[in-house]
Known about the structure:
Layout: H1 2-23, H2 25-34, E1 42-46, H3 50-61, H4 67-80, E2 101-106, E3 112-118, H5 124-134, E4 139-141, H6 142-151, H7 162-174, E5 189-194, E6 200-206, E7 227-230, E8 234-240, H8 242-247, H9 250-259, H10 264-281, E9 291-297, E10 302-308, E11 312-317, E12 320-325, E13 328-330
Parallel strand pairs: 3-4, 10-13
Antiparallel strand pairs: 1-5, 1-11, 2-3, 2-6, 5-6, 7-8, 8-9, 9-10, 11-12
Helix pairs in contact: 3-4, 4-5, 9-10
The structure holds aspartic acid.
Protein name: Asparaginase
Pfam families: Asparaginase_2
InterPro entries: Ntn_hydrolases_N, Peptidase_T2, TAT_signal
Amino acid sequence: MKNRRDFLKKTALASAAITLPSFKGLDQNELSYSNQKVNKPIVLSTWNFGIQANEEAWKILQNNGRALDAVEAGVKIPEGDPNERSVGYGGRPDREGKVTLDSCIMDEFSNIGSVACLEHIKHPISVARAVMEKTPHVMLVGQGALDFALEQGFQKENLLVEASEKEWKEWLKKSEYHPKANIENHDTIGMIALDNQGNLSGACTTSGMAFKMHGRVGDSPIIGAGLYVDNEIGAATATGHGEEVIRITGCHLVVELMRQGKSPQKACEEAVMRIVKLTQNRGKNLKDIQVGFIALNKKGEYGSYCVQGGFNYAVHDATGNKLIDANYFMK
Length: 331
Ligand code: ASP
């Protein structure tokens, strides 16, 4: 009996020793960063439309707002713009002429919310946030996501703008689906931010690949693939051919590489190299593939890398808002 009690006592102590640091995880982290200058607040987002999106996010960040609110407000800019034809309202449809949207969001507490294949709602990112905050689940898809959005008071709208409908009708004539690298028929806004409190959050939203099969879901609403945030380490988001990002659980990989000590730049490079290797191993043509990652760590350092040239991203910190051409593998 004594032995058993001893054993239980030791086990309890051992597990306390194991679990305690995780309760204090943030303290540990703060310790390791406390002596270094942290570049905060800072926000990064993908592609040209990242500039305007960053402006919106910055309004919140510079007023000591929360990174979560900043990334939601930021990505709503391209989502609501009918001239941005790869995100939200105005997005190109699938091959059945339906605009189906994919989005996800993640905060500093690892709360997550996501919607996939959602139709008729202009701001899927806000529905993803409502999934995160108001349901016991983390992901809703299709009709279920739409029913939930309507219940929450979101308006049902027609998202197919004339220009997108015209392109779709043109596409139908041949009905050939060959997504090419850097042909602007996709492009996602992924945004990651570090606020003045030192907390990270991210959002990712898209209409996905133009003329995809109805029901196709890409990487963008999949936590770990199109977006990942670990408040002790850093955050990453992705754009490009979602199938390739999902194959390597891309953004989780980037964050884990940063956990191992890699800089955001090196972590993005290594994730891209994994895609390069798998593409070659599978006998596929790398020239038809584009994937770009952006990453940010707890110190406010950032980086990016992509398979081929043509991907850019926007960075806003105290020094201003600028577009940067990402470095790439296929020279
Ligand atoms: N990653 C998105 C998707 O596969 C598209 C893109 O970012 O270009 O749906």
